[in-house]
Design goal:
By secondary structure, this protein is mainly alpha-helical. It has 6 helices and no strands. The longest helix is centred in the middle third of the chain and has 34 residues.
Length: 150
């Protein structure tokens, strides 16, 4: 059985016109009067600081992480060639140690980077307290706004 169509639907179908492609897309080519909004200066990490952090992270986190993965490969080679008998628990413990060292290196790489234009010292230990204060200050406004609304 066919449903009865309402008169509105029938009239709407009759009202629809066939638009050619030329008229349908003609308005797309017209330029609209949009106002250019000037970009705000971001308060994020400057590029030279981010590059410095990336280099430090590569050495302090990347190398221990690669060593943590290579422990499994080296252990496998030693065991399969009957060079030595290595218990699986020691393999896991040594790789976990390297992964933890990589995690500590990640934090050190981020916190020890100098925010000055010229690079700081080789290890950057003097920058750690200042960068911890910056990190705390970055999260402080968000927590203050949350506490005020409660």
């Amino acid at each position: 059985m066919k449903k009865k169509q309402s008169k509105k639907k029938i009239q709407n179908k009759k009202k629809k016109k066939d638009y050619s492609e030329k008229t349908a897309f003609a308005n797309l080519e017209k330029k609209s009067n949009t106002v250019a909004i000037p970009k705000r200066s971001s308060s994020g990490i400057p590029k030279y600081v981010a590059d410095r952090m990336a280099r430090r992270i590569f050495f302090t986190a990347g190398i221990p992480t690669i060593l943590g993965m290579s422990v499994f490969v080296v252990s496998y080679i030693i065991v399969t060639r009957n060079i030595a008998e290595i218990p699986p628990s020691s393999t896991i413990a040594i790789s976990a140690l390297f992964f933890l060292l990589g995690l500590a290196g990640l934090s050190f790489g981020i916190l020890s980077a100098s925010w000055d234009k010229e690079p700081g010292s080789f290890f950057g230990i003097e920058n750690i307290p200042m960068n911890i204060k910056r990190a705390k200050a970055a999260f402080k406004p968000a927590t203050q706004n949350f506490e005020d609304k409660s």
